[in-house]
Amino acid sequence: MALDVNILVVDDDRDICDYMKMLLGASGYNVTTLSDPTQATDVVKQGAFHVLIIDLMMPRMDGIQVIQSIRKIDNDVAIIVFTGYPSLDTAVEALKLSVSDYIKKPFEPEELRQKVAEILRKKGVQLNPEEELHRTIGAQIRQFRKERDLTLKQLARNTGLSVSLLSQIERAESSASVGSLYKISAALGVKLTQLFGDF
Predict the structure, then answer these.
(1) How far is 139 from 148, CA to CA, in rounded Å?
(2) Are 44 and 52 in contact (CB under 8 A)?
(3) pLDDT tens, N- to C-terminus, the chain (199 residues)
(4) Which of 116, 140, 152 is nearest to 6 (CA)?
(5) Of the candidates 120, 128, 130, 67, which has an alpha carbon nearest to the alpha carbon of residue 98?
(6) Is 7 helix (H, G, I), strand (E, B) or coil?
(7) How far apart, in Å, are the Cα atoms of 20 and each of 34, 45, 89?
(8) Which CATH architecture is the domain 6-122 placed in?
(9) Nearest Cα residue to 194 out of 111, 117, 136, 115
(10) How many CB atoms lie under 10 A from the CB of residue 164?
(11) Torsions phi, psi for 81 (to 5 deg)
């Protein structure tokens, strides 16, 4: 189900643009990608974006220049900076431009999804509660599994569920039945209700 949330990804690497479109699109967001940073300001002028995700190191125009240019026309849109070359200077520069978050590449897909959802919540954007629940359950299972040093394979063996199903549940790409959640909570040694986080 598509949410009425528009995200713009600006990165000169087309593969990353495609990956981000697939990753965030799977969460129901409308994703526009741009591999030419010089066009970013015009695209932002034309579209109503909730979140911009901008790479820092790009030819012709770096991320900080892109953000400076965007801030002249929109000082409220949420911006996430991501970079494979983090430095204190760029972090400080980005914060001065009211950037919402600063993510280091390579990043965990779930970390990015959570940051985007968090930013949207702060902006008062209503997300689909069912989608939010699936995301929360997936994040909780992953967190408990990591805390117990369990691989997906080990969890699959302990629950009798397939690795691919567990992986889909963690990534919120599949809704788990109560029976499956019961098996997962038993294998993780937690109460079933703990998988629902704050819901």
Answers:
(1) 14
(2) yes
(3) 446 889 999 999 999 999 999 999 888 889 999 999 999 999 999 888 999 999 999 988 999 999 999 999 998 899 999 887 777 787 788 878 889 888 888 888 888 888 898 898 888 776 667 777 888 899 899 999 999 999 999 999 999 999 999 999 998 877 889 999 999 999 999 999 999 887 6
(4) 116
(5) 67
(6) strand
(7) 11, 22, 26
(8) 3-Layer(aba) Sandwich (3.40)
(9) 136
(10) 11
(11) -100, 135
Find out whether 32 and 9 touch, Cβ atoms under 8 Å.
yes
Matching residue, tokens 């109460």: 191
CA–CA dist 169, 140 (Å, integer): 10
| Token pair listed for 101 | 């978050």
> What is the fold, at CATH topology level, of the domain defined by 129-196?
434 Repressor (Amino-terminal Domain) (1.10.260)
Residue pair 20/103 in contact (Cβ under 8 Å)? The answer is no
